[in-house]
Sequence to fold (411 residues):
Amino acid sequence: MTAADVPSFDVLVAGGGMVGASFACALARLPLRVAVVEAFPFNHSVQPSFDERTTALSRGSQRILSTLGIWEQVAGEAQAIRRIHVSEKSRFGSAVITAREQGLDALGYVVANRVLGAALWDLMQASPRIELYSPAQAVEVSQNSQSIEVTLTGNGAQRLSGRLLVIAEGARSGLRDALGIDATHKSYDQAAIVGTVEVSMPGDGSAAYERFTADGPLALLPVGASRYAFVLARSAEQTESLLALDDRAFRDLLQQTAGFRLGRFGRLGKRAAYPLALTQADQVHTDRAVVIGNAAHGLHPVAGQGYNLGLRDAATLAEVLADGVHASSFDAGAHKLLENFAAWRSSDHRNVVAFTDGLVRLFDLPGTVTGMLRGAALSAFDVVPGAKSELARHTMGLAGRLTRLARGLPL
Ligand SMILES: Cc1cc2nc3c(=O)[nH]c(=O)nc-3n(C[C@H](O)[C@H](O)[C@H](O)COP(=O)(O)OP(=O)(O)OC[C@H]3O[C@@H](n4cnc5c(N)ncnc54)[C@H](O)[C@@H]3O)c2cc1C
Fold:
């Protein structure tokens, strides 16, 4: 293939999962030629991003998806969260955050990853400026001063050239490593076991629960009439035996961990496990390449922040590109532009990583005294004026400098 035969784009996106596809959708209305390379189409049985999981979307994420025109397709199948109840098993003290006290109709929404995937891929497929290469894997990368090139496998060995490469390959990103962007991985020695369970007392089905236990946290998210999705974090060495338990034994364990606020647990859905680690890229860009989503920061799911943080990466990068796109000298991979992106994102990355990692460590500390202090802290948090609003603003994705998409303004 000669250089003239290599298709060229403004932006190449490696990875069309939750964050890569969201980013491509954010570019759909800009006058940019975009290529998305994804190893597994959204409806493939082993698609690793749009799988059986559900995602708790922050209020800010819902606004971004709404501005992009994706929310309309998802809303009918999304469950509103109007109350979040945080407690620790066997301790006094709990905290409740409600949408009403924040002056909102919902704190966030729960959506099945497959539903979100279908909506994102529909939009990409309908966008004349977005070209999808899937199934195909981006395996090699090379740069020069004017462009960056990736080689694909799985779709015939093919090369694509771009002014900017956006790496959204997830935490184990090969292109990030190939470009010399170092990343640290810290295993939590835990896995998240996820699935769904029927409950006998769902209330109005709009409450989410986070329960910390000595063995790891449990999150329960409403997903429909009388059904909750669970995310149970347990030590890695227990994972196999927990997955091997029959439904009855697993349900008993879940019930024991959750207590009876939702009544009796009934039928269980399929279970799956995800090893948990903290991944942090040392930098978010190098010449003509930028990392977003889990490729930049892979988090423990305890606070449900991973996709929300990645979507803010996507919305910010799209805005930085949109701001320059009409200039005659526009170059999507220009150093200055990538610096602007990095500067805008750094405090959000730092805060969310520290908050999520801190939460895992806080509730991992053994001992009666630390346990009592946590109980007291939860109770105090519940009554100290302003504390809840401040935390709520952050976890709802409404703190700091908001992108135009998060403010409901198109790019
Ligand atoms: C149990 C669990 C529960 C979670 N719950 C929540 C939640 O409630 N709220 C929330 O905000 N976040 C949650 N998260 C985090 C969220 O799922 C991730 O942050 C999100 O999936 C990251 O998306 P991503 O696109 O960056 O990476 P990924 O989801 O890993 O997607 C990467 C994509 O890139 C593709 N790919 C990889 N390499 C290549 C290549 N070389 N060429 C082509 N394609 C490639 C893959 O096939 C995949 O589609 C949860 C995570 C877990 C594990």
